[in-house]
Amino acid sequence: MAFKLYNLVFFKDQPDLSLQGLTPASWYSRGGYDPVVVGKWASEQKSDLLIVDFEFLCSDVRTEKAECVAQGHAQRIAAFRAAKRDKKNPRAQIGTYGVCPKGDYWTPVMPTEEKLLAWYGTNRFNSVIADDLDVICPSIYSNYDDEKGWVKFAIANIDEAYKYGKPVIPFISPHYHPSNAKVRNKEVPYFGTVLDTVRERCDSAIIWGGWWFGPKDVKEGDEPGHSLPWDNNAAWMNEVRRIVRGL
């Protein structure tokens, strides 16, 4: 599999990024859990990567009841199978966001044996959905202004992702994760390191972003926040161009 950067950014007035080397991807997240609806959505997509994201269902047996996680996985599997069955593009691969492995920053960055074993156990519990996925898509967004910490976190989560025996295409973002109010909406200054890390270690990567988030993720329409304005000369996009050129 040739390394690709998939496009899931939603900036206001952004150009056609396929002309700059990014590959289109499709995203299903807020249309309900009915597999019939998911299948219909999949049948309408032309891209080669279809992400069915049910992240709001239970997914972590460390903090949620196993019965709830199992129920969530059953709903996920039904949706993945519907997408795979009904897709019209034979090349389209099915992935999901950040469930296998369950994204975890502090466990690999400040590990204890107990916490590592619990995290590994969660990821093995979530392996039940991996058979119905074509690719594994861990979440390795930047949460903190700590480049070395991010690298340690990312490598650990990528290594966990490969344990499922499938190609790994992680989610990355040019902006910090909105959960951290101190850096929310700011561009990640080490995004070049993010790109170099995933290019070295993964099959491809998905760039997600383009949203401004309010203090409490203000709701406007169907999505939190609103689109950030497109900046063709943004530092992160220049790093993307470097990767696309193979530098």
Summary, kept brief:
The protein has about 250 residues and is of the alpha/beta class. The protein has helices at about 35-45, 65-85, 105-110, 115-125, 145-160, 190-200, 235-245, and strands at about 5-10, 25, 25-30, 50, 95, 170, 205-210, 210, 220, 225, 225.
Plain-language structure description:
The chain has 247 residues and is of the alpha/beta class. It has a single domain, classed as Glycosidases (TIM Barrel, Alpha-Beta Barrel). Helices cover 34% and strands 13% of the residues. It has seven helices and eleven strands. The protein has helices spanning 35-43, 66-86, 106-109, 113-125, 147-162, 191-201, 235-244, and strands at 5-9, 23-24, 26-28, 49-52, 93-95, 171-172, 205-209, 211-212, 219-220, 223-224, 226-227. Strands 2-1-7-6 form a four-stranded parallel β-sheet, with helices on one face. A three-stranded parallel β-sheet has the order 3-4-5, covered by helices on one side. The protein has a two-stranded antiparallel ribbon with strand order 8-11. Strand 9 (219-220) and strand 10 (223-224) form a beta hairpin. The chain starts with a strand and ends with a helix. The mean pLDDT is 94.
